[in-house]
Amino acid sequence: MLIDDQSAVIAALSAPEAYGFKASHKIFVKETNISQVFLTGEKTYKLKRGVKYPYVDYSSPEKRLAACRRELEICERFTPGFCIGVEEVVADKKGRIFLRSVCPDKNAEVIDYLLVMHEFEENMLFENMVDKGDLDRFEMMDTAEKIFDLHQKAEVIMSRNPVDIIRGRIYENNAMIRCFVPDLFDEEDVDALEKEQLEALESNRELLLKRQADGKIRWCHGDLTLRNLAMWNGQVIPFNPIEFYDDLTQIDTMYDFAFLLVEMESKGQRRLASILLNHYLALSADWDGIPVLPLFLSCRAAVNAYVFAQRSSEIKDKSESMLMANRAYEQLVIAKRFLEGKKSVLVACGGLSGSGKSRIAREAAPFIGNPPGAVIVRDDVLRKNMLNTGLEEKLNTADYTSEMEEKVFREVCDKCRYILSSGQSVVADALFHKPEQRRAIEDLAKEMNIEFKGLWVDAPLEVRIERVTMRKRNPSDVKTAEELKKQLDIDVGEVTWDKIDTSGDRMATLTRVRTLLSYQS
Fold first, then answer.
1. How many CA atoms lie within 13 A of 234 on its CB side?
2. CA distance 424 to 338
3. Alpha-carbon gap, residue 409 to 420, rounded angstroms
4. What's the rounded Cα separation, in Å, for the pair 518 and 521?
5. Contact, 259 vs 178, CB < 8 A?
6. Which of 187, 323, 159 is nearest to 251 (CA)?
7. Measured distance CA(290)–CA(287) in Å, rounded
8. Cα–Cα distance between 427 and 23 in angstroms, integer?
9. In this predicted structure, what is the pLDDT of residue 397?
10. Among 192, 260, 305, 399, which is most exposed with the fewest C-beta within 10 angstroms?
11. Using an 8 Å Cβ cutoff, are 249 and 238 in contact?
């Protein structure tokens, strides 16, 4: 709730004179449940709102100053150079409010504090970009790479029990949601959600402990949402990291990542969410995170349910308040849906280099299985994971021996088995150029009593040559016509899988694939 009245400060900072600008200068104001943000066209100023909730206390200027300094320190770790400093808000003898740096009265009284950041164009904020359809798969790949880099560099936390951490998130989230029963939520729905989340937690207890031992509990951002990501100087930047509550930041890296997936799902952007997840998995090789992902997604959606409910209670405009209330209820429904799950499906995409099988896998995955879609298990990715090399680092000829090929194929099967056993669906993306490999992946599905669909993807040689020579940001090492032509002597034998010719219209091809998979998606 709001503890410290900052209405005079907010009113003053909403006017250009407080910054030393002329009266005609435009100041844009944005409000969140814990902050007031002022955009001046040159710099952004963030005021911590004088609120006190179970998870944050900004109820005095002193606490807000400490929070600003802490966020400045953390921001420098996540996005060096983006945050500029902390600015005092002062009142002169006449009661006029200014930034300290522009106040003519050098003895003015300090009344509050602001975190100062560089400003970026509003159309570069991910929340706006996704609404306008301006985010593409390459920006999703950039985002996955940025988050992976942050997680890799983050401090490992070994002192906290990961099961207790998530149990605390479950109890606290649902306790805050219950503050809005019965006005926005039904108590039975909240009880049912909590019960299912606790059951999922218990079933993943040993895995969570293993993840801690493997260094997956780290000091994370804590609030990776679309409104806290932007393009700045041509780079993806995360900003507004959580500085006020260690329970939100000293946590599983996959939990940190899950917030962004929930937002993409909520906005109907499952394709982009699938690309984001699968590229992150390819980079991190964090396959152990897949079984716990539905629980983490559910917890993150529950956070949204509470935040939107809180905003609804604070907004005076009735229509805007009702919109927030509807979004809150929608998030509670989504939180439960993440735990429901569909029956796992295994789809295999085979074909020689340049056939288009990886594109088919990428575009089919979002529509298969549980949100945010099927996990893509790709032979090129696993080979580089196994050799501990970058995805785009070219391997030596010695890394493509028949022995290595067998190891990679066994790894493909092992990863498919593991992921399918967790309840998630899989798209296996590999050459599958040997009849015995195709039989092996089919037998795996039979062994697990999993629905299976095999797709054999092909295109004329000239099309395949053009594709491989134009490859960008692709883990395959086949990037020249000469390398591709080495596959010309491969005898794939009799192929019984559904054949897909990708040389025609792209949308027509994808529509056919969707039709073939419709009973499984």
1. 0
2. 11
3. 16
4. 5
5. no
6. 159
7. 6
8. 59
9. 87
10. 192
11. no
Q: What's the one-letter identity of residue 163? A: V
Phi/psi for 91 (5° steps) reads: -120, 130
Residue 397 CA to residue 90 CA, distance in Å, equals 67
And the tokens for 365? 């995955």
Cβ-based neighbour number of residue 408 at 10 Å: 22
Cα gap 77→84, rounded to integer Å: 13
* Distance, C-alpha 473 to centroid of its chain: 20
Is the alpha carbon torsion for 65, 126, 261, 362 positive or negative?
Answer: negative
Quick one: 377 exposed, middle or buried, by C-beta within 10 A (0-12, 13-18, 19+)?
Answer: buried
pLDDT of residue 4: 82
pLDDT at 389: 95
DSSP state of 113: E
Decide if 371 contacts 270 (C-beta within 8 A).
yes
338 forms beta bridges with none
Give the residue among 444, 450, 448 at the shortest CA–CA distance from 430: 444
Please give the structure tokens belonging to residue 206: 């040993």
What token pair was written down for 189? 């729905």
Q: How many CB atoms lie within 10 A of CB 213?
A: 11
Angstrom distance (rounded) from CA 171 to CA 48: 26
Report yes or no: 437 and 409 within 8 Å, Cβ to Cβ: yes
DSSP at 185:
S
Both structure tokens of 140: 């999703």
Quick one: pLDDT at residue 223?
94
Question: 317 is written with which tokens?
Answer: 């405009």
pLDDT of residue 488: 84
- CA quadruple 377, 302, 73, 160: dihedral positive or negative? negative
Coil, strand or helix at 94: coil
CA distance 115 to 48: 8
Kindly state the DSSP code that residue 160 receives in the 8-state scheme.
Answer: S
Going from the C-alpha of 44 to that of each of 93, 176, 244, the distances in angstroms are 26, 30, 20
All domains in the chain, ordered by first residue: 7-119 (no CATH), 126-340 (3.90.1200.10), 345-517 (3.40.50.300)
DSSP 210: H
Mean pLDDT, the chain cut into blocks of 10 residues (521 residues total):
86 96 94 92 95 89 96 92 96 95 94 96 94 94 97 95 96 95 96 98 98 97 95 94 92 97 94 97 97 97 94 90 95 95 92 95 94 96 96 92 95 98 96 97 97 96 93 92 88 95 93 83 48
Q: What is the pLDDT of residue 519?
A: 57
Report the alpha-carbon distance of residue 416 to residue 429 in Å, rounded: 11
- Chain mean position to CA 222: 12
Tokens of 54: 């179970």
| Residues 173, 299: Cα–Cα separation, whole Å | 8
Alpha helices in 341-378 (DSSP H): 357-364
